[in-house]
Amino acid sequence: MARCMIFASGLALHFWGDAVQYAAYILNRTPTSANPSRASPLEMLTGVQPQLADIVVFGSACTAYRDPGKKAWKPRAEVGMIIGKDDETKGYKVYLPHDRIVIVTQHVQNVETLNAPGNEQLQAQLAEWTSCCAGTGGGSSSEGESGCPRQG
Fold first, then answer.
1. Are residues 50 and 118 located together in one domain of the fold?
2. Where is the signal peptide, in residue numbers (predicted)?
3. By the 8 A CB rule, do 134 and 146 touch?
4. Which of 10, 67, 81, 109 is deepest in the core (most CB within 10 A)?
5. What percentage of the chain carries pLDDT values higher than 70?
């Protein structure tokens, strides 16, 4: 999953660690057939169904607010790319290519989510995967004849 995220985003390969962390974040929140009633691993641990609204496309462009401090003529927002979620806060990890740094901020706009109007293909693929895996019990270990994604 992380490999696909890196190549689909077009980011450099040195972001592989962020891709692996974000892939784990997503997988821990998605339902799996290994748990009773297809609960996610996080739901099994906490008993609360996770919210998937904050999952965004890895490497998607965004506008991130950045506190300019006392420099009045410095821009307050910069264009960056989302490379994950921060573990300690509810913020996103955003790579700013102009400054070549990663910042953590909750204040992002123009975020590409799964529910974005341009992602009908992703929505259809997700619906197909969930319906075919629910019917087969998700017992396949790799993507095969049914087209189900690999479990595990």
1. no
2. 1-19
3. no
4. 81
5. 71
